[in-house]
Records
---
Amino acid sequence: MAAIFANIDLTFLIVSLVKIVGFTFAAVLPLVTVCVYLERRFSAVIQDRVGPNRVGIPLTLLGFKKDIQIFGIGGLFQAAADGVKFILKEDFTPKMVNTFYFWLAPCLTVVPALLTCAVLPFGSELDLSLLGLAQPVKAVIADLNVGPLYTFAIASLGVYGIVLAGWASNSKYPFLGGVRSSAQMISYEISLGLSIIPVFMVFGEMNLPKITQFQDAHGWLILPLWGDGLSLGRWVLWIPMIISFLIFTVAMFAETNRLPFDLAECETELVGGYHTEYSSMKFALFFMGEYAAMIIGSGLAVTLFLGGWSIPFAPLLGLDFKAGATPLWLGLLHIATFFAKVLGFILFFILIRWSLPRFRFDQLMKFGWLFMFEAALANVLLTAVLMIWFPVK
Amino acid sequence: MATIIVQRPKLAWHEKAFISTLLKGLKITLGHAFKTLSQIIGRKPKVTMEYPEEKWDSHLPDYYRGAPALVTDEQDRERCVSCQLCEFICPPKAIKITPGEIPSDDPWAKVEKRPKEFEIDMIRCIYCGMCEEVCPEQAIFLRKDYAITGLSRKEMVHDKQRLYEIGGKRVGLVNKWNELK
């Protein structure tokens, strides 16, 4: 027994724990609430409305003159109010449902979404010599060599949550939503997976932190503007990369059930889709899982195509990553850059949602199987052929 | 009648593939977003009126139908003669009148009747304005008050005193009872 304990690296254990709690519960989950607020405010301004602007950080209760506002944009605490409302609402389980699966489904939506956080590099390295750590801490929970494979393996479990919710609700609208969603997610997962094979061919690597480090030094995948990125080969390969980025983004929209692919819940046809029968915190879990999947999807897209935590023109500005010699402030700046990029991508998600109408189900299937799938396959071939003449590195 | 056949516009390939149309759509939504955002930051949202802070009272039209109220004439006489026509016509039965006699030593004894109690239940009132229309004495009018609130059902019943408070004085119109006739 003592030998087992002696072999455990306590620093590694504590650091990992801090990273897991810090990134998953202190960064991604609060980011979900930020997303909900952004969604409501952004959709409001798109439709010439004002949006939720009342729930301020209640400084007036503490005797201050005004609530905190950013440039006159109030309502920053709306998400907290929403959360409290969800907790206080009646948690109602209808009589006709299959109770076990009815309770299981929300968990199966949230857990895979949060599990996929593990391989996302949310920063470069943190030099924590202040706290007496000799080695710089890598800002990724699990430094896996098969990161994207792990992500897809776990993310595809998310469909079970929706299917089970639709099935267990024992009601026609959730059932239709669940059936539609399972078909949709299975068809678009193929193009999602195929679309990033060219990316791995270019990098010759499936380790997400290393992919990001490469982009930091040699230009982002779809913006190769510095380092080796200025070579002819990278710009020729830019064509398949941009195709792959487009396919990946569209498939990501379908995977996360966002408009124009939100056939699983489409309010106008299916009431609320698979979560029609859910209320209170169980409904909030679906909501959270959906937004968490959106954040992770954005994080993956940013990491693969837009340089992850890398600051634009880093080598020219002297802000690039040097293994083992990155000062603490630069490490923190990298983390901030990553979250800024993810937020930007989420804003793009929201903009698309309020710009495009929903697909019809047959259009969705036709688009997925007869266009996206073929385009992704052809893109793999195109990249392979181009790489004969323009190998990277 | 001549039939006009509407020609569908010929779409270019990039429009058919939703490439340029997608960008056009994003341009429209982003344009609206930036326009409204700048209005919010400049603290002057043009479309939305933020209700409790800003009110549209000054924009109310003359024919606006708000809370019904009783009025007095230029000599502070109660115009209502408690004929109960409004009570009978009121579609939701919101009005309740208890008629009373005017004592003979009163200067307005010749009017003979006035309401002892006049109650309008503002929870029932539908602001239709039929009471105003039917009143032969022009004693009840729909005012521009619209935010009628209360903490209990009892508070929402406007009694005679409250109705005259809202209504105030109206001059002219009916000269049946005064010397001007």
---
Amino acid sequence: MKKSALYFYLFVVIHHLSFSQATENKINTPSTNIYSPMLFVDELQIPWGFTFLPDGSMLITEKKGELILFKDNKKQKIGNLPDVYVRGQGGLLDIELHPNFKENGWIYLSFSSSKGKNKGGHTAILRAQLKDTSLVQKEVLYKAYPNTTKGQHFGSRIVFDKDNYLYFSIGERGARDVNPQDIKRDGGKIYRLHDDGRIPLDNPFVGIDSAKTAIYSYGHRNPQGLILHTITGEIWSHEHGPKGGDEINIIKKGANYGWPLITYGVNYSGTLITDKTKMKGMEEPLHYWIPSIAPSGMAFVTSDKYPEWKGNILVGSLKFQYLERLVLKDNKVVYREKILADLGRVRAVKQGPDGFIYVAVEGKGIYKLIPNTKN
Amino acid sequence: MKILATLYILFISISFSFLKQETSLEESIQRGQEIYADFCITCHLEKGEGIPSTFPPLAKSDYLLNNRTVSIKVIKYGQQEEITVNGQTYNNMMPALGLEDEEIADVMNYILNSWENTSNKMVTPEEVSSAIE
């Protein structure tokens, strides 16, 4: 009894010490919800990513390797997809349109691919156009190597910045001591390319012998949130930590985000990875989560449909099955709120061109968030 | 004397085959532990405890221990229907993991022989390949 009391005391003390941002790590549950989820696309398994076509229809990726066109309330399967390596967390992943899609018709997809000589797979980025219900003009713009049969950490989200540069994330593929800190290896990185796949000459590691010059930032674990902050023009990202230590970061050119040398997380077994949360030359997160929420999908609210949420960040939680709303002040999280509690594993979230927020939930479908009518 | 010798040889060969079975089970469990750390641990957690009402436990799970073939099929093909584990209902989806038959046998042997779970019959790749949806 005494022993357990001592352990409890130690636990509390260590817990407090480890929380340098204690208030931000408390999540609030609102007593009333001002918005309600309406099921917009039903019966989806793992809707990993989705995007909106100019005519209001939707393209949805299913992780198992299907691309679905949702138009006039009907689902159609898109044909002529690339070969997808479906294993563990790998499959057909994110989808994004070129900012000038109306003129050039380019669609960008991320997926795991077994292309290459080694057994296994790694993340690839492809662009293609849609003709009727088939992909045409397919071009693989990037393929990470070497393949591995490991089941985890493929990334991957795709986003364009204001100058039409293409950014995407690739996770460290379960090789944390090998990949993330090595700019000569793929994985654990955020990449930047021109929209046609060329490597920008001002990428940070261009000119370094045998570096992977598509790399824009490194030291990441598994980023599955990547957005453009439409006001500042910055690229924001979040990534899965191990047990504890999920992070939000603002992505800077050539920066090292520290995994696995610095982290707020520990091994799944509870043992220590490192006792360091900061180190010279490494970026510290804008926000970290303890415990991990397993973040997937990210959106920046700019629309007038949600005046109370303007400027907030929304992040899906796979683990706790809700959508999280983060209020920021001077690039610090000052308030966290649980919305759509117990809705299911939130995989992706986006603000549509109509200004409404859409939320993809595993095993359910895609929900549209609509304001509750006032009495 | 002849009988004794025959018995002796029989005894030796039987114990060797047991030993062989044991080492191959242990090796399978070891490989299965790696598969578990790769593919299963994020949801079912380190000690197979799962997350209440979200991801069912594997440790002392009546569902796993009483439904060997069904469990193999869940790992092989995924599953999406309500199940009851140790009296609690779970209604989440588990995707197919893309594992090879040998890997499924290994991870089955690991989860059937960890966290106080025990099974006296080893799962083989052949058993996995014959478990068809």
